[in-house]
Inverse folding.
């Protein structure tokens, strides 16, 4: 019996289609791709000259920028979607509106190891990656024309990855993206009514229920959202209230790394390396929003940062693109049970 | 030089990334798939007993339902996302909200010919398909619990198609989808300001400019939208004002068929059968919207139906899913030029 479920945070509806119910064995397994040729890989240690100079790195003591000895390396994208040397402007083109393509588009090389992917990383390696996200985000927010930094990872061809060597990406935008705007509106609306944070309530409820919980540690919980748009979708949420990822402490990042390690390994082992996107949602930094002087009012209380993992085993087709409804053939309660029980 | 462009109708922003500019030869060509085995195909004439009984068909005179002799055949989906025998209800599940999975999910078998795809159809065949869309939509709107009928076509595996034999689909929903809601809001906002229809203005401007026009006939124009989210995206829009597809006349559908024939053939020949989604956007029928008694006020003047074609040659990855920003590596002006010049 199908059911329509409301995702309050995103203001979207999802069809949980039990009729088409898919269990893990109904999905393709073994997505593992042909290994990219290491000789042609521009992300290998020793080939730092093939990429633009690094803007941030975690390196062994005493090693110089743009030489080997790095654990994580952040570089400008060679084919950037946005550019820091573009002018920041807003202008009309007759009946249309546009802005200059100002911004940053960077690649975070997660590891020097050509053959290692996120599910192979240790908790310590994931900690360094999460720390890199935080530090580079902080640096980019120094620029007052940067309104939002979107950090994401595309894993596998079906999730949009084009280069084999494991990497994450960051795009720093000259405006707050629509999806974050929607989430802020929804959280504000909820707060106005309840005087409570939407995600705090959700986490508390999910921990009470347990049916959709995948994993739980000291500070973070991993669960399959009630209105999951993707089969085996997961949300990693701090159990303490926090609106801003840049304010996380190293201790918190350590627990986050453990939660992420568990989530990614479980997913990867259940389907033998399926494609997925990892997306970090956090509150934007305070900026001048001339059309809404109260945009940032109470932001620290109403927004709650989190990470989402979207496995890309089903394609969003004409219906999803046309309506913004999603069809999910695996109820999150079932997905959570399979993920929870998967030994890693 | 990249540029951010605003899509007013959808309230989204697109990065037109000229740095990564892709011309037709930068995309993979020859997407043509392995032909699905005709012996296993449940959509062949003579195998009508393998599908649920038809609910609509265009047939040769004197032939009986669920027997050969059909040109187009509409059947319930065997694995429906929504079901007409589900109850129509709205209910909460503690902190969450949900609705019964009531609705219709139907397959429109476009042609009895296993080997024919949309780009191979004649204008006459496309006319019958567009007429089927109109008639079945009208029939389903008899049911007052159906708030919207989304008609779409997934062509090619990358666009979400799972069965080889050419078909379209229809999902009749118990609520107005978010994207249509957004479009109505945006059109209303525009109308309030200008006392003009947004799409009427856009069509007029595009026809004046000519730079993004792909094709133009008596009643319809085909163009690459200013803020195209997908490379080689096209919009087919009536040049006369009309909010409701169910009210189109046969003469209008005939011109629409010519425009659609041209658009699909040009796209298909430019890339050798690329994957794409076709989506029909039209005003919802008048229903009781208890929380907004004026929802349908002026709808006939502010909304303008249209068809969009989304080629799926680029994958929407973590960035697009996270932000609802899109990155389009081919400026629509270039896409339109290639499409316009493509001989068919």
């Amino acid at each position: 019996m199908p059911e329509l479920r409301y995702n309050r945070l995103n203001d979207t509806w999802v069809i949980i289609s039990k009729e088409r119910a898919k269990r893990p064995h109904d999905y393709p397994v073994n997505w593992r791709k042909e290994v990219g040729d290491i000789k042609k890989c521009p992300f290998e240690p020793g080939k730092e000259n093939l990429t633009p100079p690094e803007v941030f790195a975690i390196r062994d003591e005493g090693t110089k920028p743009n030489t080997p000895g790095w654990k994580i390396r952040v570089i400008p994208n060679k084919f950037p979607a946005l550019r820091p040397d573009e002018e920041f402007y807003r202008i009309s083109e007759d009946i249309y509106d546009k802005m200059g393509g100002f911004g940053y588009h960077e690649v975070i090389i997660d590891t020097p190891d050509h053959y290692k992917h996120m599910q192979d990383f240790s908790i310590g390696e994931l900690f360094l990656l999460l720390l890199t996200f935080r530090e580079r985000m902080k640096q980019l927010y120094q620029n007052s024309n940067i309104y939002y930094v979107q950090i994401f990872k595309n894993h596998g061809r079906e999730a949009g990855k084009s280069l084999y060597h494991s990497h994450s990406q960051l795009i720093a935008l000259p405006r707050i993206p629509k999806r974050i705007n929607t989430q802020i509106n929804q959280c504000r609306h909820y707060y106005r009514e309840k005087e409570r944070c939407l995600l705090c309530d959700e986490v508390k409820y999910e921990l009470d229920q347990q049916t959709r919980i995948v994993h739980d540690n000291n500070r973070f919980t991993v669960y399959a959202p009630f209105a999951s748009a993707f089969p085996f979708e997961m949300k990693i949420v701090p159990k303490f209230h926090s609106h801003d990822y840049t304010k996380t402490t190293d201790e918190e990042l350590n627990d986050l790394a453990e939660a992420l390690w568990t989530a990614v390994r479980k997913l990867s082992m259940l389907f033998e390396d399926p494609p997925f996107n990892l997306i970090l949602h956090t509150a934007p930094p305070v900026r001048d929003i001339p059309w809404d002087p109260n945009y940032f009012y109470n932001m620290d209380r109403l927004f709650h940062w989190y990470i989402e993992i979207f496995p890309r085993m089903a394609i969003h087709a004409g219906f999803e693109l046309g309506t913004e409804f999603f069809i999910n053939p695996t109820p999150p309660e079932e997905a959570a049970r399979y993920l929870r029980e998967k030994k890693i």
